[in-house]
């Protein structure tokens, strides 16, 4: 975006524009795989720009302070692959990019003639007519002088035909050519007449053959005679004896055939109260230039502890993948939360055995928690009065809250069988007036986010004291015709009842097998089965129950 070269145009008279355009022209058979936008300039940064009127937010930013001037410079990166694929060939305009305030407020940039701003896009494309190549992109922001060394690792050079290196650099001046060199493996590169050996950073663009890029270099060099077949590394060296040069991006293209193993944890199958986990995973060989060999080791760690090992089963082709499954058991030292890590190309000691394009993308991590069934409060057996033959009516609705030990757990239901509670079927709907024969066990199901638990309690009956109605009118009107005692028959099955007149003479005796006393005199000198005279009588009721050792004694009134 400079309108002239800093070293030629004094001060800041080469005013910067706030937008500029460039054209993309790919052949129809060239498929865009990635597009990386970089913009840079003097100062601390303008990170609010637009590409073809679309606002761009940087994913990464870089900064550098030149040691010779103490001035700051910036660069930003944004991946714009989707936008470029959607737009395709045509004109791309970066706009709303200004460092004017920086230049006005800090005079050092203009006085030192290091004022610049500009942008570039690195586009990686696929062409089936080309041989397999490994593309390495190195970015950042590093100033020169005096020297900058970059070591390319993880290479496996098969042949060196059409090997290339390219870079984006800022603030280079064509009139300053003091020890400005680009070397690979110690050999100085040149591309005359555009890029002489002693002036690597001279404001040129070897893609468009422009010599007036003004304080920006976008140059590509052939390096096929400077790298050897079988090389595993390459050394790039950049020097500048005087001019402040900032290296932003270095791109290499080498016929280096290597796999690139990555791994992804797909699903983790776990059970409640179990340290056994079954994990599905995928090993891929994407963005590679060579198949991944069978038998590539895989190590599994939980909180850094080795808990499992396996290996790939088949040769994984370029852009291919393989699915696998492994069962692991957590050590007892891991109680609740843990980090599960899968690492491909790891023999269990943190060491890989496969030379790859990238050695820092071999793992996948998931944070997990063990699942435990919810705790519950032990419930007391529930008692109610025996209504006869151990039948009782129960209200256990409050047990739904009493059973929960944790407020975050959920009560699910009451059930008559363990199978129903386990399967969550046939819950009991009537919990306030539940009539049944006791004793009977009922089951409760509670749940948390992942697990359930089942507990139970018993319904029991007890023999409650009977209710005695002490008025008898033997007139056969259907009301109080007999001496009725509520809660006696079929409850106290061994009871004995005796009726006495006011003089203490026994006149009637009965039990669970006899009729209720209806005023008949059944014992004594009086004619049998005759009705007793109207008046007050007394009863003695032996319940013959351990809870009621003493007889119940009272009076009753009889009338005809």
Question: Overview of this structure, please?
Answer:
- With 560 residues, the protein is mainly β.
- 5% of the residues lie in helices and 44% in strands.
- It has a 5-stranded mixed sheet with strand order 31-38-37-33-34, with no helix packed on it. Strands 1-7-3-4 form a 4-stranded antiparallel sheet, with no helix packed on it. Strands 5-6-2-8 form a 4-stranded antiparallel sheet, covered by helices on one side.
- The longest helix has 7 residues, at 81-87.
Number of helices: 5
Round the Cα radius of gyration to an integer and report it. 47 Å
Beta strand count: 38
Summarize the biggest pleated sheet: 5 strands, mixed
The percent range for helix content is: under 10%
State mean pLDDT (0 to 100 scale): 92
Strand order of the largest sheet: 31-38-37-33-34
Low-confidence stretches: none
- Global shape: rod-shaped
Proportion of β residues?
A: 35-45%
**What separation lies between the terminal Cα atoms?**
124 Å
- Sheet/helix structural class: mainly beta
Write the SSE topology.
Layout: E1 20-24, E2 31-42, E3 49-51, E4 54-56, E5 60-65, E6 72-79, H1 81-87, E7 90-95, H2 100-105, H3 108-111, E8 117-126, E9 134-144, E10 147-152, E11 157-170, E12 181-184, E13 187-188, E14 216-222, E15 234-239, E16 245-256, E17 262-270, E18 276-284, E19 297-302, E20 305-311, E21 321-329, E22 337-344, E23 363-369, E24 382-385, E25 391-394, H4 399-402, E26 410-415, H5 418-423, E27 434-437, E28 440-447, E29 452-462, E30 467-468, E31 471-473, E32 485-486, E33 496-500, E34 506-511, E35 520-521, E36 530-531, E37 535-542, E38 552-559
Parallel strand pairs: 24-29, 31-38
Antiparallel strand pairs: 1-7, 2-6, 2-8, 3-4, 3-7, 5-6, 9-16, 10-15, 11-14, 11-16, 12-13, 12-15, 17-18, 18-21, 19-20, 19-22, 22-23, 25-27, 26-28, 28-29, 30-32, 33-34, 33-37, 35-36, 37-38
């Amino acid at each position: 975006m400079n309108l002239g070269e800093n070293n030629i145009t004094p001060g800041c008279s080469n005013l910067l524009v706030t937008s500029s355009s460039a054209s993309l022209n790919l052949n129809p058979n060239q498929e865009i795989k990635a597009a990386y936008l970089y913009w840079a300039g003097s100062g601390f940064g303008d990170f609010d720009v637009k590409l073809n009127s679309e606002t761009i937010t940087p994913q990464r930013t870089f900064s550098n302070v030149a040691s010779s001037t103490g001035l700051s410079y910036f660069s930003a990166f944004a991946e714009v692959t989707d936008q470029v694929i959607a737009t395709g060939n045509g004109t791309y305009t970066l706009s709303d990019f200004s460092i004017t305030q920086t230049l006005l407020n800090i005079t050092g940039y203009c006085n030192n003639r290091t004022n610049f701003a500009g942008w570039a896009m690195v586009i990686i494309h696929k062409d089936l007519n080309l041989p397999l190549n490994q593309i390495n992109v190195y970015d950042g922001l590093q100033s020169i002088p005096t020297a900058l060394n970059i070591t390319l690792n993880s290479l496996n050079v098969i042949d060196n035909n059409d090997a290339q290196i390219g870079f984006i650099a800022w603030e280079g001046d064509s009139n300053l050519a003091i020890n400005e060199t680009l070397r690979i493996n110690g050999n100085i590169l040149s591309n005359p007449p555009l890029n002489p050996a002693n002036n690597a950073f001279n404001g040129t663009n070897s893609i468009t053959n422009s010599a007036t890029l003004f304080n920006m270099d976008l140059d590509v060099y052939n390096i096929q005679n400077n790298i050897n077949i079988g090389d595993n590394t390459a050394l790039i060296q950049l020097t500048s004896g005087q001019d402040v040069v900032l290296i932003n991006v270095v791109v290499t293209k080498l016929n280096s055939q290597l796999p690139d193993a990555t791994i992804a944890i797909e699903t983790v199958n776990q059970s409640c109260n179990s340290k056994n986990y079954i994990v599905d995973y995928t090993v891929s060989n994407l963005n590679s230039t060579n198949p991944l060999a069978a038998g590539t080791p895989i190590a599994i760690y939980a909180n850094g502890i080795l808990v499992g090992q396996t290996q790939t089963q088949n040769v994984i082709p370029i852009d291919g993948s393989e699915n696998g499954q492994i069962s692991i058991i957590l050590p007892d030292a891991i109680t609740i939360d843990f980090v599960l890590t899968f690492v491909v190309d790891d023999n269990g000691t943190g060491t890989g055995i496969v030379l790859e394009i990238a050695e820092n993308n071999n793992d996948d991590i998931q944070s997990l928690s063990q699942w435990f069934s919810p705790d519950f409060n032990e419930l007391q057996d529930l008692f109610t009065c025996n209504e006869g033959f151990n039948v009782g009516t129960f209200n256990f609705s409050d047990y739904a809250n009493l059973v929960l030990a944790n407020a975050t757990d959920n009560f699910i239901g009451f059930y008559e069988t363990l199978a129903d509670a386990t399967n969550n079927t046939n819950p009991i709907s009537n919990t306030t007036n539940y009539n049944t024969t006791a004793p009977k066990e009922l089951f409760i199901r509670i749940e948390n986010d992942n697990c359930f638990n089942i507990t139970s309690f018993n319904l029991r009956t007890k023999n409650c004291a009977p209710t005695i109605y002490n008025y008898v009118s033997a007139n056969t009107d259907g009301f109080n015709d007999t001496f009725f005692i509520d809660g006696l028959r079929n409850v106290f099955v061994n009871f004995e009842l005796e009726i006495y007149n006011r003089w203490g003479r026994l006149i009637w005796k009965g039990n669970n097998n006899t009729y209720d006393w209806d005023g008949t005199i059944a014992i004594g000198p009086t004619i049998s089965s005759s009705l007793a005279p109207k008046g007050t009588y007394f009863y003695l009721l032996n319940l013959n129950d351990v809870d009621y050792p003493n007889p119940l004694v009272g009076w009753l009134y009889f009338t005809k």
